[in-house]
Amino acid sequence: MAAAARTWPLSGGGAEEAACACAAAAGPGTMGRRREGLSVAREIDGLEEKLAHCRQSMEEVDLKLRREKLSPEGRKSLERERNLLMTKADNYEKELSALRKENRKNAALAVAMGLLIALIYACWTM
């Protein structure tokens, strides 16, 4: 997966310019939707990468808010971006939780099927 470039300016521009690439990476309303052709494990990996990128961006915004002197407008813009990033991170965490639950179900199903096949084989050969 290619790393998305940061689109928010380092000098503290407007809210429109401060949109993070990770916020757009998931697209609108991807929560609860399965991407065709991807295994649950791959979806989990991709989502973990997006979450890590969002957390890194959030840390950079927090650092900028603490260290730099900003105009009230610039500070407000960065605070909005931080709130957006926190919301996206929360959504990613919820979706990751659901995917991990689905992955556990799939693993349990695979084990049950393996045991059933072993039982059928044992009964067949006796």
Write the layout of secondary structure elements.
Layout: H1 21-25, H2 40-67, H3 72-125
Helix pairs in contact: 2-3
Describe this entry's structure for a reader.
- The N terminus is likely disordered.
- The protein contains three helices and no strands.
- The protein is rod-shaped and about 80 Å long.
- It has 126 residues and is mainly α.
- Helix content is 69%, strand content 0%.
Task: Tell me the major beta sheet.
Answer: none
Structural class by secondary-structure content = mainly alpha
Topology, number of strands: 0
Count the DSSP helices: 3
Order of helices and strands: HHH
Multimeric state = single chain
Shape: rod-shaped
What portion of residues belong to β-strands?
Answer: under 5%
Average residue pLDDT: 79
Q: Termini separation (Å)?
A: 51 Å
The residue fraction in helices comes out at: 55-70%
Spatial extent as radius of gyration: 21 Å
- Uncertain segments are 1-29
Descriptive tags:
single chain, 126 residues, mainly alpha, 3 helices, rod-shaped, disordered N terminus
Short description:
The protein is built from three helices and no strands.
